[in-house]
Amino acid sequence: MEADKERIRAIWRQTEIPVVFRRTGLGQVLRVRLPEAADNRSWLKNGRRRHPIWIQSKEYWELPKAWLNDFVHRSLKRYGRVYLIQPYREKQICAPSCMKAAGHECECSCMGANHGMQNDGSWHEISDAFAVRWGDAHMACRLLVLRKGRRFSVQ
Asked: Where is pLDDT greater, at 99 or 79?
């Protein structure tokens, strides 16, 4: 877990590939780092009414969340690649029959992790054979790369 955090910090600090950090929550904005260029402000604004905000002390731009897809598409066109850092929650799947089981035999996708443990209230039971829950939020990072011949629609 700590290694993942350090990897994300290193990606955020590098200066060769654009990085967008998408957070969730009311009022949260995108944080963006770009390779240094004289036209970064106008390139980010892209003819919109709103202006990107430069946070001098942290050396990143703040953009509205609604600009995410456009930013990614245009970054891919301009730079050929972009890092996207965003929250994710891992989905866990089990079955009520597994959680209520008394024996040792388990053929569930949990591989026995929840076998006989009962539902502690964190599981959403969809049917007798299927229950799901979401784990804690973590940050994930992926490198998006423009492939030759691939066209993106910019809206």
From this structure: 79
Angle at the Cα of 14 from the Cα atoms of 13 and 16, rounded to 5 degrees? 145
Continuous segment of H or E residues that includes residue 135: strand 130-145
**Could you report the per-residue pLDDT of 131-141, keeping only the tens digit for each?**
888 877 788 89
pTM of the model: 0.73
Structure tokens at 22: 């998408």
Could you tell me where the beta strands, DSSP code E, fall in 15-128? 19-21, 30-33, 53-55, 60-63, 81-94, 124-127
Q: Cβ–Cβ contacts within 10 Å for residue 127, how many? A: 8
Query: CB of 115 within 8 A of CB of 109?
Result: no
147-151-155 Cα angle (round to 5) = 130
Cross-strand bridge partners of residue 144: 82
